[in-house]
Amino acid sequence: MNACNSRFKMQNANTSRRRKNPVTSASTFARLLCLHFAFCILNCVDASAQQPLLLDRIVARISGNEVTLTDLQTARGFGVVAGPTEATALEQLIDRQLLLAEVARFPPPDPAETAVAAEVTREKAAAGNRLQELMASTGTDEARLHDIARDTLRLEAYIDQRFGTSMQVTDDEAAAYYGAHPDEFRRDGAAIPFEAALPVARERASIERRKEQVQRWLYDLRGRADIAVPKS
Predict the structure, then answer these.
(1) CATH number, span 58-228
(2) What residue segments make up the domains of the chain, in order of their start?
(3) More confident residue, 38 or 155
(4) Crossing angle, helix 86-105 and helix 194-224, to 10 degrees?
C-alpha cells in the first residue's frame, strides 16, 4: 500500500512538472521575442543616427519638373546663379532650366574637358572657404560639379550658336548707348568724347542688344512653360 502511494505521489509530481513546462516555454519565448524586437529597434535607431533622413523642399515646378531648395542652394553656392535674394536667384535658376530643356532639343557639341575642368575650378572658387561644407550639405560630389560645369558651357555654346557672339550696331545705336550710360565713359572725372569712345560704345551696345534678344526669347519660353512657385 505504501509502495502504491509512493508511486502515485511520484506520478502526480511528474504530471505537475509536465503541466508547468508549457508555461515556462511560453514565458521564455515571450522574453526572446521581446529581446528580438528590442535588438531590431536599436539597430534602426543606430542606422538612423548614422544616416539622417534629409527632407527637401520643392521651390518650383517647371512643366512637371521639380526644383528643390537643395538645387537652389547648390546653384547659388557655386555661382551658377546670383542675386541678392533667394527669390531673384530662383528666377535665374528657372531660366536656366528652361534653357537646358532647349539645349536637350538642339544640343551643341560637347565642350572640351579642359574647358569643363576650368569651369569646375571657377565653381569651387565661387564657393570659397565654404566649399567642403557646401558639398556636404547639398550632397554635391565631383561628378555633380562636372555635370553642372558641362551644362553651363553647353548653355553658353547654344546661345552663341543661336544669337551669335556679337550683334552689328550702327553708329546711331552706339551713340544712344553712349548717351544712356555716361558714367561708363569718363576718365579722371571728365567725359570721354564720343569719337574716342565710339569703339567701346559700339561693343557695349552690341552686348546690350544681344542680352535684350536673349531676354525676349526667355520671356517667350516662360510663356510656353507651366511654371509654379509654391509659397514657402
Answers:
(1) 1.10.4030.10
(2) 1-53, 58-228
(3) 155
(4) 80
